[in-house]
Amino acid sequence: MARVTEIAVREFRTTVLTKAFLLAAIILPVVFWVLALALPFLLQPSPKPLEGALAVVDVDGRLAAAVVVEFDGDRLVRERNRRLAEMQRRLQGVLPEPMREMLERQARSMFEAPAPLVGVETSSDPAAVESFRRRVRAGELLACVRYESSVLSAAEDTNRFELFLREGLTRQQVDDLQGALGRAVVSARAATVGLDVAHARAVLAPPVSVSTTLRGDGVDVQENQLAKVFVPLAFMLLLWSSVWVTGNYLLTSTIEEKSNRVIEVLLSAVSPLELLAGKVIGQCAVGALMLGMYSSVGLSAASSLGYAHLVPPDKLVYLGIYFLMAFLMVAATMAAIGAAVSELRDAQTLLGPVTIVFTLPLFTWFFVTENPDSTFARVISYIPPMTPFAMVLRVASVESVPGWEIVLTSLVGFGGVLGMVWAAARIFRVGILLTGKSATPAELWKWLRRP
After folding, report:
1. Sign (positive/negative) of CA torsion 427, 430, 435, 439?
2. Lowest mean pLDDT: which of 38-47, 56-65, 404-413?
3. What is the pTM of this model?
4. CA-wise closest residue to 362 among 232, 231, 237
């Protein structure tokens, strides 16, 4: 056991004390956390005011008049205030307080920008479009809009207008133009039928549902359904990235030690199985360190944004259990591949199908999260290579998976671990001494059957 521990410590140190690992596991999480705190201030919008002349070609004349009214400075300010109030109403009860305040602060700074100073030139002559287009291209006009009188009918096939823009306008400036020109059409239509737009908008606005989950522990929380979908994905990515990265460390270190003949020196002091056990344990510690670092960053971000209640301690315990299961599966596979080849490029052939199997849960996360008790979710929970990934999605998606199912899938999963470790040990003890060439599938099968 002492020799296994010594190998594990060596494997851990040679991996952790590298610049690449320090960058990936320690520096990057710190950078992400700093950016998460600073991003709201770095992204504080400073929109450029919209200034210039707008040309309107409208044969009917009613739309041109509506555009003139729409680009009145006071009306634009009122419209911005209405949009800000509408956004605040929609965010109420949907997002946690910290995130809602951050978004409202950014929106307020955008809406409080100077109102556009746009002069409007109108023409009822359709031929004037070409001269206006030339002036837009020359930079004399902000834009030119051409309305067809049929747009007032609101028919689906004519519900559009043409807008010719000057080069260099920002996205926000284009949005302001398009929004005002669209509202002008709505105002003209409403005036035609004698409709009060503001009243109609208020009547048609759906109410906001403020959903509160009444928990058994007496702590009631307002739920965000979108967050409940992405929290399981975060668990899945944490699990997958930590085991896959460390599994690749194990693969590359095994191949490098074989090519450098370091493995022969190690095998003069320990047995192949002791070497395999030490390397797996060492890399497991590396993966646990990575998982802890990224989890702490994620928990801090969730707490600061008001989502801490979505990550109760029992789910973190499950994350640790499924990390151990997933890592042993990946590590056994990578150790076997590393022992069976002599160069890293030879490993790519064997890695192809392995990668497909282990990445398949990533493509099914949405279906499992949406319906964690479906037949599909239950079936893949009993397929050992996918068991830990499917189960971490399920336990993070719903309040509680039946206890018997957690126990049964854990037995199946760790049973799969035993089978994969047994196969990896048989391949490792023979392949680790193979140099100069890579094993064929037939040879791997022969090694598995060798007593």
Report:
1. negative
2. 38-47
3. 0.65
4. 237
